[in-house]
Amino acid sequence: MKEIIKIVSADLNNPQHAQAIVNLLDMYASDRMGGNHPLSDFAKENLISAFKKRSAIQPLLAFVGNAPAGLAICMEGFSTFSCQPLLNIHDLAVSPQFQGRGIGRQLVEHATSLAEKLGCCKVTLEVLEGNAPARGLYKSCGFINYELDPEMGSAMFLQRLL
């Protein structure tokens, strides 16, 4: 019997969905690809209420049966050059016990469908250079390095901690 994988837009008022988001994000943050540090107690306690204050955040959840298996935290942004919204997949994670089943691909496809429904001009994401499985997935889903002029090279993702 084939397992049923279901992708849903998370209902932040649903306690099962809220807990799944926190648990899956904590799992991801604790992983090497997420920085090797679990979420702080503050983040765990306040994440869902902070999401509720920001209508541009669109969390997606993947379930295998009733078990939370993956998530994509999507955020609507804006492309000034296109004068249209864009959707950024800020976090994408699949629980290790469910990896290799196509859940990441389904989350990306669902995010892409959501972006189309929202009238977005593109979907963006970031990935670590050393995360070969994720890079392979994103490439197979049609993602390419961002560049405006090949002579100037690809864009770099930078941060400044505050």
How are the secondary structure elements laid out?
Elements: E1 5-9, H1 15-30, H2 41-52, E2 57-64, E3 67-79, E4 84-94, H3 103-117, E5 123-125, H4 132-140
Parallel strand pairs: 4-5
Antiparallel strand pairs: 1-2, 2-3, 3-4
List keywords for this structure.
alpha+beta; five-stranded mixed sheet; 32% helix
Structure description:
With 162 residues, this protein is of the alpha+beta class. 32% of the residues lie in helices and 25% in strands. It contains four helices and five strands; from the N terminus they run βααβββαβα. The protein has helices at residues 15-30, 41-52, 103-117, 132-140; strands at residues 5-9, 57-64, 67-79, 84-94, 123-125. It has a five-stranded mixed β-sheet, sandwiched between helices. The radius of gyration is 16 Å and the shape is globular. It starts with a strand and ends in a 22-residue tail after the last helix.
- Tell me the strand order in the biggest sheet: 1-2-3-4-5
Parts with pLDDT < 50 across at least 5 consecutive residues: none
Largest sheet: 5 strands, mixed
The total of beta strands comes to 5
Topology as H/E string? EHHEEEHEH
Helical proportion?
Answer: 25-40%
In what range is the share of β-strand residues?
Answer: 15-25%
What assembly state would you assign to the polypeptide chains in this entry?
single chain
Shape annotation: globular
What class do helices, strands and sheet pairing give? alpha+beta
Mean pLDDT: 95
If helices are DSSP runs of H or I spanning 4 or more residues, what is the number of helices?
4
Radius of gyration, taken over Cα atoms and rounded to an integer in Å? 16 Å
For the record, give the distance between the C-alpha atoms at the N and C termini, rounded to a whole number. 50 Å
